Amino acid sequence: MRSPSLLPLLPLVACFIAPALALGCGKKAEPEKGAASEKAEKAEKGDKKKDDESDDKAGKKKKKPKGDDDKGDDKGDDKPKAAAGSGCKAPDTELKGDFTITKGCTLKLESYIAINDGAVLTIEPGATIQFGPDSYIEVVYGRLVAKGTDVEPIVFTSSNKDPAAGDWPGLFIADKAMSGNVLDKVVIEYAGRDAHGSHGALTLEGAVRGGRVSVTNSKFKDVKTTGVWGDHDDAAFARFEGNTFVKMGDSAIEVPSMVLGSVGKNDWGGHVIRSGGDVTASIAWPKVDVPIVINRAIGVRGVKDAAILTLADKSVLKFGPEAYIEVGLENGSGLVAKGCTFTSANATAAAGDWPGLFFGEKTTGTTLDGGSVEYAGRDAHGAHAAMTYESPAKKVANAKVTGVTFKKNLNSAFFSDDADCGPNVEKASGNTADGPLCNKKE
Question: What is the pTM of this model?
């Protein structure tokens, strides 16, 4: 009888004798990493990064929402949201399912609530949420709906027995917030603590897509810093009107130029508005009864079509040392102002505090009628006078300035390289100055 062959068993024996070889033992060899796979790995890691300020919140990172940043739709992940809930209790710190804080509830919050995964946090009328020093609500990728009534407003307040401005950070709406965030007939008080990236009672973080936030008929009071703060041009409000500001530590709101164009009528309580930054489409700023402090340069530039910045009649604009308005950029742009005051933001103003106004060759639709320009002419950013032509005045034909009073400026009212300031310095213009109207030819 012949002995059976041992050849078929050799691979199995090899697996036991030399496991390091892993030859034919069912394990797939891993491909060697090349430059492409390393880039993909880095890209994947990069996608998981969060802004440093957001990472610092409560000492833990929040998961970034999935989806296409550029599409801006409200579609969530393919996976279903967590089950909905309700009650007079704090929802999960990382809220991933719809939750309702019920009517009349008083809730003390010692941690944060991050609304994520397309979840909706609804707060019913009469609810009061008390916040500790490191607690806040942030809309990461979802929606906050807080609709109070005249009789039963929703109150966001401090948990301290003796509350004071700056007790807690405030509310946050991040750049991936879904549409439909509503604060209506709410009170936000004692907020503005300098922690977790807060800049005010309500902080708009990054490029919150326009029209996704509505703040109406609400009261901001006893805030250490500003009432509402945002820093991205695209974060225009769906609605911002009927609000009241009481005892702000600084401004009522601080938002970019384009966002200010989406602001309606409010009771500013004597607190200034801060704004600045480029105007890339035609907008009209609201009529307000307080000064608008310009804290950074405004370049009015027609990115697609000519852009016109229209100021409400008799507006008062106060400029910081590096702030100015420049028109006539890119595809054309202009400025419309009637009876407006352009002046210094310094408490003790002096000639040359700020650069002034600039008119480029592509200036169009520009009319300044009445009002005054004061304390301008600072030697910075190419300024030579209160109003500087960046091309010879005869090439800047669409800048009509009439009946404006120039006073306490450094150098002349107008400047042109060829010392020919055009019709704006003729007697018929009605412009007056306590110094020369046009620079002298050198």
Answer: 0.82
